[in-house]
Design a protein that fits this description.
2 helices; mainly beta; disordered N terminus; five-stranded antiparallel sheet; Methylamine Dehydrogenase, Chain H
């Protein structure tokens, strides 16, 4: 007679809710898949350097990296005036950085490593930082007297070193501000370039001074009190201009490039556009310029001279994908901020070649991570759990920490569409189950509490056998050791929990379960004794004596045809319904395995991600875009996308 619980699960599985249609990943043999890699939850928005520190502003934090590789997050909880950084303005003379946030203005002293807030301006100034964040942000430049100039959509504002606020007569919307060493303040507005002399006089810079740019957007201070301005002319063409005080010359680049970012370096600048990085400097008639198929020329279009005083050369480096920002550290290093991968630091040699040096990454998504689970309600609405504190909500472009500030052990999607999370407090010895609604609100499921011996209970797997029937693999900490503890089944509608393990009163499932997969009446388990299968309440265990090449089973998945694939230290074993086979092509060490609906098998290995379509094995590794080769976990969502976790990265593979 079948155990009553199993009968209940089979009844629930009689009429499952159909899954939404998925666009399957193409066959591995075609190699046509999209690989996107993340090491950071949100894009790098801006960079600034001061002394031995690099400041990296993301959408939600300001990260300070030191020259020893350490990182400190400046957040509201550590004293920052707000959560969203709007502008950074280094003051090299005073070794400090001005910081504008959605909560106010402050400055960071690099000598004392202290951040101090500036008192908010009076209402008469008309500056509200929350509104400033909504209206498109701000720009800031240090003033020669120790104060700062703030450019806003409503004009220019000055703040003294002691916190005194003054509005100015400039009311045009401002996109950038920069000060040269002589004290001239340069202001990029939507109506053109303006300059404020040290005397306080303000004037417009235009064609009369040799500037053909009508919509400036990037300003870079150059040596010799020069300035670089990048923007478009009245016809919308990209232009660059160099000038000092009232003498300017404008150039066009051939071929034309849209410039994304610029920063100062040595006696010139570094600019980024068209997926390449270029060095701009004064022309040297004695230097032999290198030949380059993708080189550019700067051609004068206005100014007093028809000769090109400046030249542009490509820098030999591969720009990381999704690079929106640039920064320089001293003269031999270049920083490139990215959308998903943090900040790349390159060392630039004397001949202009760039060598990768390191990545500046905080990796907060992977601190204390032990596993990977993914549950999606839509293509661009997913929850990610790594067994560490908090879950991460994927919006299609970025990750946002969500849910309670607890250890989130797993997220799992019911076939009916509801998403659940298994979590516990950092010091708690029990696991709770919560339901996550479409707004991101977590609601505890009544009466569901999972318990294990020892401390710090964990989850090895969480799968729905059918709507409302959740199977959970349990384990716990015993000192430094992690010990498996069978499985628990949860009837989510009734809040009923049952435990199953060898010697228990219900299903005689081996206690040493390390992974599992369930489909209908059949459940497969990877255990420390081999591979186990549960069918009709009966458990069958296979060991090396039964055809396994290794009893060290690490993971198991059920394929599209109902066959089981197990990951072992000796490779992948496949159960065809009668016997185990270990294909020669799959005889390499595996950490995890999943199967997609179109019959592909995806494996986490020490050499990247391996995919098998039944005949060929293809790999995705660092040569093909991964941030690291050691991949620890893989998961698949209902859209047949594959997710993979390394020690410091998350990879998404899709069509």
């Amino acid at each position: 007679m079948r155990p009553p619980l199993l009968v209940g699960l089979l009844v629930l599985g009689a009429c499952p809710t159909p899954e939404p249609p998925a666009a399957p990943i193409p066959p591995v043999s075609t190699g046509k898949v999209r690989v996107r890699v993340f090491t950071e939850p949100t894009p790098v928005r801006m960079l600034a350097t001061a002394e031995r520190f690099v400041f990296v502003a993301t959408e939600h934090d300001l990260e300070r990296f030191d020259d020893g590789g350490g990182v400190f997050a400046l957040t509201p909880s550590t004293g920052l005036s707000g959560s969203q950084v709007l502008a950074l303005g280094p003051d090299p003379d005073r070794k400090q950085v001005w910081i504008v946030t959605d909560g106010g203005l402050g400055r960071y002293e690099t000598q004392t490593e202290v951040y101090s807030s500036i008192e908010d301006p009076p209402a008469s100034i008309g500056l509200d930082f929350t509104t400033l964040a909504k209206d498109g942000g701000a720009s800031i430049a240090s003033a020669k007297d120790g104060g700062a100039w703030i450019g806003t959509p409503n004009g220019l504002i000055y703040v003294s070193a002691k916190g005194g606020w003054t509005s100015t007569a400039i009311k045009d919307p401002i996109t950038a501000v920069a000060r040269d060493h002589a004290g001239w303040l340069w202001i990029a507005t939507t109506t053109g370039l303006m300059a404020r002399k040290p005397s306080g006089d303000t004037l417009k810079i235009g064609t009369g001074q040799g500037l053909a740019i009508t919509t400036p957007r990037l300003l870079v201070e150059l040596p010799g009190d020069r300035m670089l301005v990048i923007g478009t002319d009245e016809a919308g063409h990209e232009r660059v201009a160099f000038g000092k005080e009232l003498a300017w010359q404008t150039y066009r680049a051939l071929p034309e490039v849209t410039w994304d970012a610029a920063t100062r370096r040595t006696n010139g600048a570094v600019v980024m556009g068209g997926g390449r990085v270029y060095r701009i400097g004064l022309a040297d008639p004695n230097r032999v310029r290198p030949l380059a198929r993708d080189g550019l020329r700067l051609v004068p279009v206005s100014g007093a001279s028809t000769a090109s005083e400046w030249e542009i050369d490509p820098i030999d480096l591969v720009v990381p994908p999704g690079a929106p920002s640039l920064g320089a550290v001293a003269d031999d290093q270049l920083l490139i901020g990215t959308r998903d991968l943090g900040t790349a630091r390159f060392r630039i040699s004397g001949d202009g070649r760039a060598q990768p040096r390191e990545w500046l990454r905080r990796k907060q998504m992977f601190q204390d991570a032990t596993t990977l689970s993914v549950a999606c309600s839509k293509v661009d609405e997913c929850w990610i759990a790594t067994g560490a504190r908090q879950a991460w909500r994927w919006t299609g472009e970025r990750f946002v920490a969500g849910g309670p500030d607890e250890v989130v052990l797993a997220v799992v999607r019911d076939p009916g569409g509801t998403i659940y999370a298994l979590h516990r407090g950092t010091a708690e010895a029990t696991i709770q189950l919560s339901r996550i609604d479409r707004t991101g609100t977590w609601t505890a499921v009544p009466n569901v509490v999972l318990e294990t011996p020892g401390t710090a209970p964990e989850i090895s797997f969480a799968r729905f056998a059918s709507p409302g029937a959740l199977w959970v693999g349990l384990r716990y900490r015993d000192g430094m050791d992690r010990r498996p503890y069978g499985i628990a089944t949860i009837e989510t509608a009734m809040g009923k929990v049952s435990y199953h393990r060898t010697g228990g009163m219900l299903l005689p499932i081996p206690i040493g379960v390390v992974d599992g997969d369930v489909r209908g009446e059949t459940a497969w388990f990877a255990t420390n004794e081999g591979v186990a299968r549960l069918v009709h309440g009966q458990v069958k265990v296979w060991s090396e004596a039964d055809g396994l090449l290794s009893e060290v089973a690490r993971a198991v998945t059920i394929g599209s045809t109902g066959n089981a694939i197990v990951a072992t230290g000796a490779g992948a074993g496949i159960w065809d319904g009668k016997a185990w086979a270990f294909p020669p092509a799959l005889r390499f060490e595996l950490n995890d395995v999943v199967a997609t609906r179109n019959g592909q098998v995806w494996m986490a290995t020490e050499r990247g991600i391996a995919a098998w379509d039944g005949s060929k094995v293809r790999r995705v590794d660092m040569r093909r875009g991964l941030a690291e080769n050691q991949i620890l976990d893989v998961a698949v969502d209902q859209f047949d996308r594959v997710w993979a976790r390394g020690a410091g990265s998350l990879t998404l593979i899709s069509q």
